[in-house]
Amino acid sequence: MAPRVGIIMGSDSDWPTMEAAAVALAEFDVPFEVGVVSAHRTVRKMVTYAETAADRGLQVIITGAGGAAHLPGMVAALTPLPVIGVPVPLKHLDGMDSLLSIVQMPAGVPVATVSIGGARNAGLLAVRILGASDEGLRKRMAQFQAGLEQLVAEKDEALRN
Ligand code: RP5
């Protein structure tokens, strides 16, 4: 199946954080591709990736980067597709540098920024975006949400017994 979501990250060192996005997409059987694309070390690759993504059939791009995390914003500037940004926490500054580098975009160039290290939510958000025009996925997301509610009810019950 052709990938509908692209997961890219600035370095292979981001993968332990970003893997959760892939896991979430796999749970919903959404085909995806994964790659390392750096805004600083592989500038031309980044431009080509972002500029060709829509024509290649991608519908959402999940981007993760740490530190001076310019990848999400640059990709958003180069593609009309929705871009989700994952601030990857590094050794210093607890990921605040990554978050602030990604979240404060200028008007006109949105990046849907999730929490520091929040790659699972990035995957789930991509499913929701696809689900807006895919009834099957939308129903599965509703079931997933019902499952969360059920889980909390069971934990609540267990606490009181
Ligand atoms: C960023 O620099 C990457 O996204 C990564 O989070 C960080 C460090 O990269 P490495 O030095 O581990 O390759 O561009």
From TrEMBL:
Pathway, per UniProt? Answer: Purine metabolism; IMP biosynthesis via de novo pathway; 5-amino-1-(5-phospho-D-ribosyl)imidazole-4-carboxylate from 5-amino-1-(5-phospho-D-ribosyl)imidazole (N5-CAIR route): step 2/2
What SMART domains does UniProt report for this protein, alphabetically? AIRC
Q: Which GO terms describe its biological process?
A: 'de novo' IMP biosynthetic process
| Pfam assignment, any one | AIRC
What EC number(s) has UniProt assigned to this enzyme?
A: 5.4.99.18
MF terms (GO), sorted A to Z:
5-(carboxyamino)imidazole ribonucleotide mutase activity
Q: Which residues bind substrate?
A: 11, 14, 41
Q: Which residues form the PurE domain?
A: 3-152
Q: Which residues form a coiled coil?
A: none
Q: Could you list this entry's UniProt keywords, alphabetically sorted.
A: Isomerase, Purine biosynthesis
- Reaction it catalyzes: 5-carboxyamino-1-(5-phospho-D-ribosyl)imidazole + H(+) = 5-amino-1-(5-phospho-D-ribosyl)imidazole-4-carboxylate
| Functional summary from the UniProt entry | Catalyzes the conversion of N5-carboxyaminoimidazole ribonucleotide (N5-CAIR) to 4-carboxy-5-aminoimidazole ribonucleotide (CAIR).
Q: Which family does it belong to?
A: Belongs to the AIR carboxylase family. Class I subfamily.
Record HAMAP family: PurE_classI (MF_01929)
Entry's NCBIfam families?
Answer: purE
Q: What is this protein called?
A: N5-carboxyaminoimidazole ribonucleotide mutase
State the organism named in the record: Krasilnikovia cinnamomea
What lineage, starting at the top, does this entry show?
Bacteria, Bacillati, Actinomycetota, Actinomycetes, Micromonosporales
